[in-house]
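[job 0412] stage=fold_complex status=start
inputs:
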Amino acid sequence: MLSHGLSAIAKEDAGWGSPWGSTILDASPLSLRRSLPSGGPPNLQGLGPRRAPRACGTAVGLPANELWNYREKAGAGLYSVGTLARTRLSMSIEKARQNQKQGLSGWGRSYRPGREIRSEDLVQASSHVPLCRGLGRSYGDSSLPASGDAVTLGTTLADRILGFDEHSGLLRVEAGLCLADLNRIFLRRNWFTPVTPGTKFVTLGGMVASDVHGKNHHVSGTFGRHVHSLLIRTGAGQIVHCSRQEHSDLFLATLGGMGLTGHILEVVLQMEKIPSPWIYQESYRISCLDELLEMVRATAKDWPMTVSWVDTVARGKAMGRGILFVGRWARPDEAPPGVPKPRPTITAPFDLPSGLLNRSTIRLFNQAVYASHYKKVKRGYVNPDQYFYPLDSLNHWNRFYGKRGVTQHQSVIPHEHAKEGVRRMIEALAEAGTASFLTVVKDCGPEGDGVLSFPREGVSLALDLPIRDDSPAVIGRLNAIVHSTGGRIYLTKDGLSTAEDFQAMEPRLEQFLAIKNKWDPQGRIRSAQSERLMSHVVRAPNIG
Amino acid sequence: MKAVILGATRGMGRSLSRLFAENGHDVFLLGIGEEELQASATDVKERAGGVQSSVRVGYAVCDLEHPETFAPALDAAAQELGGIDTVVVTAGLFATQERLEQDLEFTRRMLTVNFAHTVLFCEHARTRLLAQGGGTLCAFSSVAGDRGRKPVVLYGSSKAGLSAYLEGLDHKFRSQGLVTVCVKPGFVKTGMTEGLPTPPFAGTPDQVARDVLVAIEKKKPMLYTPFMWRWVMLVIRNLPRMVMRKLGF
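[job 0412] stage=fold_complex status=done
writing structure:
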């Protein structure tokens, strides 16, 4: 209903009136067409994955019955040129449609039934939706509708910059603005987001909801620390301004609250003035896990940005070898002239077979990466895109994992257990016979003030795991290790943890749910993830 | 360029105004809703470089349903930008054929806005541009106007009229320096088409905006965008009636 109203009264830009609507129903192959009874409408369910009646109603505006009658009449000249052309064309269109997976998915490509509606006017459109969704870059089911909910509100059309103060650096934006746009606009003016995640294809609203952290977490904390205030539509329907001074409970629960405390409509954040739009980077080749963890901690003292790539497949002494990247913004006197140019991107054109990324191929890949850093130390000035978002130059890289997709397991482990915890997790992967394609280790600073925000002091380990039949079991084992070391997991990456595991690791959940219930007493805002992890509170005292 | 864009707060108009400003052109936004216009003007200005940028951005209320707003809005634009040389119309109304058939009042509004008032606005713009020796008038028609089709009987007819007007205008006044660009977008994923099933070759507003800017710079009289629609419509325009009648679109 909502989307209808919107499209009908929207000021238009171009015109095209649902041309494919009626072809869709005409898409049955000839054989099927002939075998149908000539009387009443056939059972549309019988057409299996083809269009359901709902879609016909929306698209063509006729009840299924009438549409079918029309078809019968049109079908009189069954073998006329027109019919043949129509059937061929509609069949190929239908085939193309079926190849698109139905429903919505996160970056890990696990699909859920549901649809996204988009609107430029979030204030109006958010009044009756159960969940908002940005660019869908969370891996699991954070941005997917709970069972029974049909829609999520896509925010990406609401992407305006509503104000920027050149003196204070305060920026006010609509929640759907993409970080890539923000960087493009502000980098050349020597302003940058104070915290950036590992991809620039996220919305600002999503960055708040995930309370993202970056390579500078040990210095700058999470994104939430730099958020000044928010405009939120709560589950009860009110529009609320909140900040650390005003409705601070709602504000702090929203940082890292996975969009469950209310729909984020606008974000005011403190931008960071940078000395130049270039990064000075050093990278070190490191030969074993212990050295890597020590170096990660040691370099954090001298460098504002650190991150390391780890080879989790190498055996014996080489286990946990890797490359450590440290960096800082370049000073104006040393930076290359001009503004960094956009890097060329390539697109993964199709799904690779699902089993292609396995221990053997990942081992080969890791050896190549490690060997390519044949110097012990490299230094240089690089484009921030290359430094912050190396994977963004490959569009749709999740297609490498095939149709089954990928899940990520990111955890943070307190320093005192870090070596043991990371080692045990790497060993658990080896035992399960699986491997992480891209493994990232990072030193995290003190915890922020988001009620359910992920990072805490310790070592963060992110593992990219191809989905297999045993993936839930593997995730369960990893969670047990995290729990036993007193760590926690990152909801934005998670799609497979159980409620028991999550709640055992997350003593803060009760406080979070209390705030959520205060602002959303009827529990209107929910996601597939909240349904999976938070809908029923279980208390399993010990899962280790 | 000194461009006036009607319908600049939403969809393709929004993308186009941003692109103009990012390329260093002065932009004047026309649309409905003072607050919306102000928000969009701030957005366009920041994208052009903010306070340090020399790009001028202004706005005024102009509603295609109210022809009396046309002249004052265009005058305000000319005054603020110090003359105008490009006028773009992206605004219009749309609804599905089903809804239009049931709601004749909305059909009247749609036909009036998309054809009669858009033509009137273009006439206002034309006289102003010709008076200063020429310029570019670019209006958004639609592929829906190329052929009478079942799902867009009413909407398509309004766009067919507009396309014919724009073509005539280009023939008559190009020698006097007035270039007319008729943009025919195919299916573009905007707020207007939200909720409709997405066909193949669907475009994005940003993609359309880039094509339109090139067409304006190259003074092309007609533009199909995204480019595949040129070939799709070539086929559809040439289908015999007996085939067209059987087809669903």
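[job 0412] summary: Chain B has a mean pLDDT of 95.
[job 0412] exit 0
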